[in-house]
Specification:
Helix content: 25-40%
Strand order of the largest sheet: 3-4-5-10-11-12-13-14
Number of helices: 11
Order of helices and strands: EEEHEHEEEEEHEHHHEHEHEHEHH
Strand content: 15-25%
Distance between the termini: 20 Å
Largest sheet: 8 strands, parallel, barrel
CATH class: Alpha Beta
Low-confidence stretches: none
CATH superfamily: Aldolase class I
Shape: globular
Number of strands: 14
Structural class: alpha/beta
Number of domains: 1
Length: 358
């Protein structure tokens, strides 16, 4: 038996298998960042995943970093997401929503002129953002005030309320990939000298406040957290990644979260290290790992208890029936990078399923 196919009890939520669909930004939301029929079809197609973690979703208006990503702050968005969760549940699936603030990765051209905000006034270098006026350099964000930080924490709480209204089974806090919470965590983007900067406990303060707020809405075991200790994407750096995230793993135990979702590597292959083993030794809760796993390596990681489940991104993007393909050792569809963020069904809902003969 493939251990990836074993059922798993996620804090009372029974998952059919340990094959998780990682959150994937696909830029298919409709007007006003509202999920539509196409997103409903896309997620329902992938409902055989043990757990779907839906894509990064704006907790507050004016925080767009991808132009056509979804939000969860308006009644129309809640209604759109409710259609998605109903469709996934009708297929027997489980689905969490990833709660997200883009921080300095946002751009005024995507947000009616609103400037990006961040822990410090440091822009993303070495990359550009897609906007209605073409690719543009990232702007210098405005340093958040203490009052504004409190408003963002409240924004996460309200988003958690809306996610519950929308019928999700739980939520994942996005603390990874160079977005706002990650920007506070790592010293390459956080140069503050107040209670949100400097020592580890100060840089983690926003994360802990957000987790407290979200866990006031959801039971703790229905809340997950995603971290990317080594990822340099969005011009991110940390002087002591192993020390910071090892310390953080121990601190997170007190929250009793449903899971900790760790991206084990760097998108850009600049930073290296085995952070996952350190976290596994220090964190006592459910651990989901992500990035670059083959199905064979994932099965071995679960079998040897290095992790409890594995999240697949690109595989699920191109293979809506990924679970069946792993079960039967069937070949996988190749993903088309040209359609990752393009509008419409092409490269989104039109990947072929296994035929009866296969």
């Amino acid at each position: 038996m493939n251990p990836l196919l074993d059922p798993f009890d996620l804090g009372g939520l029974m998952l059919e298998n340990r094959i998780v669909m990682a959150p994937l930004t696909r830029c298919r939301a409709e007007a006003e960042h509202t999920p539509g029929v196409l997103m409903k079809e896309y997620y329902a197609q992938r409902a055989t995943a043990g757990l779907i973690i839906a894509e990064a979703t704006m907790v507050m208006e004016g925080t767009s970093a991808f132009w056509t990503e979804p939000g969860i702050y308006s009644p129309a968005q809640v209604k759109g997401w409710k259609a998605v969760t109903d469709a996934v549940h009708a297929e027997g699936g489980r689905i969490f929503l990833q709660l997200w603030h883009g921080g300095r990765a946002c751009h005024p051209l995507l947000n009616d002129g609103r400037e990006a905000v961040a822990p410090s006034a440091m822009r993303i270098r070495g990359d550009e953002v897609h906007t209605p006026e073409g690719k543009q350099p990232y702007t210098i964000p405005r340093k958040l005030s203490l009052d504004e930080i409190a408003m963002i924490v409240e924004g996460f709480r309200l988003a958690a309320v809306n996610a519950k209204k929308a019928g999700f089974d739980g939520v994942e806090v996005h603390g990874a990939n160079g977005y706002l919470i990650d920007e506070f965590l790592r010293d390459g983007s956080n140069h503050r000298t107040d209670s949100y900067g400097g020592p580890f406990e100060n840089r983690a303060r926003l994360l802990f406040e957000v987790l407290d707020a979200v866990c006031s809405v959801w039971e703790n075991h229905r809340v997950g957290l995603r971290l990317s200790p080594l990822n340099s994407y969005n011009d991110m750096k940390e002087s002591h990644p192993v020390e910071l995230f090892s310390w953080l793993a121990e601190e997170l135990d007190r929250f009793g979260l449903g899971y900790l979702h760790v991206m084990r590597a760097d998108f850009l292959d600049k930073q290296h290290g085995d952070i996952l083993s350190s976290i596994r030794g220090l964190y006592n809760g459910t651990l989901i790992a992500n990035m670059g796993y083959t199905s064979e390596e994932a099965a071995e990681a679960v079998k040897t208890k290095k992790v409890d489940a594995v999240a697949f991104g690109t595989y699920f993007l191109a293979n809506p029936d990924l679970v069946e393909r792993i079960k039967t050792s069937a070949p996988l569809n190749e993903a088309d990078p040209d359609t990752f963020y393009s509008p419409g069904a092409k490269g989104y809902t039109d990947y072929p399923l296994l035929s009866v003969d296969e």
